[in-house]
Write a structure and sequence with these properties.
The protein is an alpha/beta fold. It has 2 domains: 81 residues, Winged helix-like DNA-binding domain superfamily/Winged helix DNA-binding domain (Arc Repressor Mutant, subunit A), CATH 1.10.10.10; 205 residues, D-Maltodextrin-Binding Protein, domain 2, CATH 3.40.190. The protein is 40% helix and 20% strand. It is built from 9 helices and 11 strands. The longest helix has 25 residues. The protein is globular. 31% of the residues are buried.
């Protein structure tokens, strides 16, 4: 047999993207044993090992790495053809609001998959701070929003919890100064709680910048004139995490929260389920760090 099976390729890519059979099974809505059997069938058909199972986790062999690129292209073309030929002719526009610091790594994957499933639908993406997105959602200006909040508001659904970390300039020394120079946008959702944590730790601080623009904060950080707290893995250029050895208090954590009104609209419901599945199973493309619930 010289035909590659789409089902086994889909399981293979899901395992490679999510880092394990358990997460892949959740994303594919299959049992772990079913995914394992499909991987075994693919390896038997090709006559080569694709996964290195000798370590604690699952890694791709050299042949697996080579197949992964082909598999992505095959699945993308298959899904595009299927969507174009079988999808109901849903047309219109749906508005998704997302804060800028959580667009990566998952939102591009969500948008790409949604466009394949509903090729005639237009997605309008709005990037704004959480408070503004909540206001727009309340006025009906957004159909679906993702937010970063300490706790979910009324009607919000927590998708994942993420730690905050202290960041500053590369090889920076600002975190050693007294009082501690900090920089947050005036509309930053983390600002109040992080400052409260500094005060609880009896850590004197001063606000190094007053601005509602992220680039002003980033300039102060990269110039080593201040530090800030951000979602782990989401760092502006020329900044990095601070190895403070416990000199600074834990900045806490945030939650990614999904808001969407209950509706019978199948398109909106499909987008909601896609967002849920992507965040809860850790589906992604690229080399970004995996978010864990």
């Amino acid at each position: 047999m010289r035909n590659l099976d789409i089902t086994t390729l889909r399981s293979f890519v899901a395992v490679a993207d999510s880092g394990g059979v358990t997460r892949a099974a959740g994303f594919l809505h299959l049992t772990q044993s079913a995914v394992s059997m499909q991987l075994k069938r693919l390896e038997e058909n090709l006559g080569i090992p694709l996964l290195d199972r000798t370590g604690r986790g699952i890694a791709l062999t050299a042949a697996g790495e080579q197949l992964l690129g082909y598999a992505r292209r095959i699945l993308e073309l298959n899904d595009e053809a299927w969507g174009r030929l079988t999808a109901n002719e849903y047309e219109g526009e749906i508005t998704l609001g997302v804060p800028h610091d959580i667009i990566y790594p998952y939102v591009p994957h969500i948008l790409r998959r949604f466009a394949m499933d509903f090729p005639r639908m237009q997605v309008r993406l709005i990037s704004a701070p959480t408070r503004k997105l909540r206001e727009m959602f309340g006025r009906g200006q957004c159909d679906v929003i993702l937010t970063t909040e300490e706790q979910a508001g009324p009607g919000g659904e927590v998708l994942v919890r993420l730690p905050l970390v202290w960041i500053g300039a590369l090889d920076g020394q600002a975190w050693k100064r007294h009082p501690l120079p900090v920089a947050f946008c005036s509309n930053c959702i983390f600002r109040t709680d992080v400052l409260r944590r500094l005060e609880a730790a009896h850590q004197p601080w001063e606000m190094a910048v007053e601005s509602d623009l992220d680039n002003a904060v980033e300039a102060m950080l990269s110039a080593d004139l201040a530090i800030s707290a951000v979602i782990q893995g989401v760092y502006p250029r020329q900044t990095t995490t601070i190895d403070h050895g416990g000199a600074l208090p834990d900045p806490g954590e945030t939650r990614i929260v999904l808001y969407m009104e209950r509706t019978e609209n199948p398109v909106a419901n499909a987008l909601r389920e896609l967002i849920r599945t992507t965040y809860r199973t850790g589906s992604k493309t690229g080399d970004e760090a995996l978010l864990t619930a």
